[in-house]
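A further point concerns the way the authors explain their paired sequence and structure data. Nothing conveys this as quickly as seeing an actual entry. An entry of this sort, consisting of the sequence and the corresponding backbone structure tokens, reads as follows:
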Amino acid sequence: MKSPKVIFSISVLLLLIYIIVLSQQFSSVQEIIPVHYSGDGGDGFGSKNFLWLEVGLNFLFLYLLALPIFFPEKMFAKTTDYLESSTEAAIKNRQLFLSVLSVLVTIIFCGLSLKEIICLSFI
């Protein structure tokens, strides 16, 4: 099984790649971009600076998830009320869940606006 720290580092790497792509393409992104979508397509519009807000929110989310992954002794209670056979197994399972969650959230945050960065900047 992969270490939760290695899996978490994938989300950090994805965010760094996204920041690099956004920095390089930011000047060619249209000033007004869709920021909300419905079944009919974009129905809410805003400034392209909203893309940096997504980066900030993703960074904050990753920071909050990093705390229990890197400092489990401070984040998890020292009880025996876990369903797993040992406290170590319980903490490892929760760290693994949080690290996979960090990757999924980063993909969602970056993936939603990547279309605006890459597609619209070349039109």
The radius of gyration is 18 Å. The CA atoms of residues 41 and 54 lie 20 Å apart. The beta strands are 32-38, 41-47.
